Amino acid sequence: MFKRILWATDFSEHATRAREWAVDCARCSQGKLFALVVVDVADVPVLADVVTPEVSQANLAEAEAWTEARLAEVAQGRLAREITDIRATGVEAEPVVRIGVPWREILAAAEELGIDMIVFGSHGKHGLKTLVLGNTVENVTRRAPCPVMIIR
Asked: Which sequence spans correspond to the domains of the chain?
């Protein structure tokens, strides 16, 4: 029934619990699991505060691009370890790293990948790896093109 499952993670405790449910669903349906992490440079508030006469908007844009790239590298490395663990259970898994607003990127990935079900935690980690904020849960569940499983 659910052959293409999207597990959205921010590597928090709730996301880890959600992973177990996503893996079980994929195993039971002999489906494929897509593990998604969204890098949101807005989680780095210091960048917005550094625009001064000495630091132009162009410099800020350059700094944001550099920060996004570094955060994406870190996310990819961490996600690679998660994928290894998932594949060890016998489930086919593919990593997906996106940059942007978490709820928008979750929905876009679900559409683009033809996802049958989205699984993620009810609460996320606050800080650089924020994925699941209150409005992320609400926006994804209201707009998702498929069923959504939220794990507490």
From this structure: 4-151
Tell whether pTM > 0.70: yes
Rounded distance between C-alpha atoms, residue 114 and residue 40, angstroms: 23
Interior angle at CA 123, CA 22 and CA 137, nearest 5: 75
State which CATH number among 3.40.50.300, 3.40.50.1970, 3.40.720.10, 3.40.50.620 fits the domain covering 4-151: 3.40.50.620
Report CA 115 to chain centroid distance, whole Å. Answer: 14
Helices 134-143 and 102-113, axial angle in degrees (round to 10): 30
CA distance 125 to 67: 19
pLDDT tens digit sequence for 108-150: 999 999 999 999 998 765 543 344 446 888 899 999 999 999 9
Secondary structure in 3-state letters for 33-91: EEEEEEECHHHCHHHHHHCECCECHHHHHHHHHHHHHHHHHHHHHHHHHHHHHHHHCCC
